[in-house]
Amino acid sequence: MNEKLFSWKQLMLVVIATILTTIGVMREFVSTQSGEKYALLDKEAVVADYVFSTPDFSDADRAKVLDAIDAVQKKYADQGYLVIEKTSCTSGDSSIVLSAAPETMINITSELRQRLAKDKGND
Q1: ∠ CA(51), CA(61), CA(93), 5° rounding?
Q2: b vs e for 17-35, b when ≥16 Cβ sit within 10 Å of the residue's Cβ?
Q3: DSSP of the chain, one letter per residue?
Q4: Pick from 85, 59, 61: nearest CA to 72
Q5: How confident is the model at residue 28, as a pLDDT?
Q6: Which of 115, 119, 109 is nearest to 71 (CA)?
Q7: Cα separations (Å) of 38 from 9, 41, 80, 113?
Q8: Distance of CA 7 to CAs 3, 104, 118, Å?
Q9: What is the pLDDT of residues 82-122, one digit of tens each?
Q10: What is the rounded distance in angstroms from the CA atom of residue 61 to the CA atom of residue 5?
């Protein structure tokens, strides 16, 4: 009745395999969490500036604005960023409010502003 289930060598192999598996899983979890990238975009401010500075705002201008927004958002989404839009709430609207953000968040609003200014100059 004094039979052992595992020899000490087998038990050591099981312990080492468990440790290595745990380290592998933790490394994957930690790298996923710390590798997240965030970009903030204040579309309202940029679009309002553009519209108010263009007295004869037309459907063509509207298309340029939408194309510029899509291009900037796609650029950062393709790079793995989660693009978060800064927006104001009006009565009757529902929205998601971001009350805290990681220090690594970048603000891409100026890039959208520059792209629209460049497009406006090409008219």
Answers
A1: 55
A2: eeeeeeeeeeeeeeeeeee
A3: ----SS-HHHHHHHHHHHHHHHHHHHHHHHHHHHT-EEEEE-HHHHHHHHHHT-TT--HHHHHHHHHHHHHHHHHHHHTTEEEEE-----TT----------TT-EE-HHHHHHHHHHHHHT-
A4: 85
A5: 66
A6: 115
A7: 48, 10, 9, 19
A8: 10, 50, 74
A9: 888 877 666 656 565 566 666 778 888 899 999 988 877 66
A10: 77
Give phi and psi for 102, each to the nearest 5: -65, 155
**Mean pLDDT, all residues of the chain:** 80
Distance, first Cα to last Cα, the chain? 92
CA distance 36 to 30: 10
